[in-house]
Design goal:
Layout lengths: L3 E11 L5 H11 L3 E6 L5 E8 H13 L5 E9 L9 E2 L1
Parallel strand pairs: 2-5
Antiparallel strand pairs: 1-3, 1-4, 2-3
Length: 91
């Protein structure tokens, strides 16, 4: 892959109990990205995603929209680590 990047993300808003993790999984699989997404105890959704830079841009555009019952207030990102990332999963 060229232009490969890895990004850690935290999503704030109404993102738990609305199908957000599985929505994120579907988008990541369509874009052939690796990583994971999970719920956090503080009500956010967190994860790590890696892939082509252009696909990551589409990924974040789509998850900013979220599934119908969700509301995304903020997405925080920071550089991630490529170690041992597998096909995208929900944890």
């Amino acid at each position: 892959m060229q232009n490969l990047e890895c990004i850690n993300f935290t999503i704030h808003g109404r993102v738990q109990r609305v199908g957000f993790r599985y929505f994120t999984l579907q988008i990541a699989q369509q874009l052939k990205l690796t990583g994971f997404v999970k719920n956090s105890e503080n009500g956010t959704v967190t994860g790590t995603v890696a892939g082509e830079k252009s696909n990551l841009q589409v990924f974040f555009e789509e998850i900013r929209k979220g599934p119908p019952l969700s509301r995304v207030d903020t997405i925080f990102t920071e550089p991630g680590n490529y170690k041992e990332l597998e096909p995208f999963t929900v944890k």
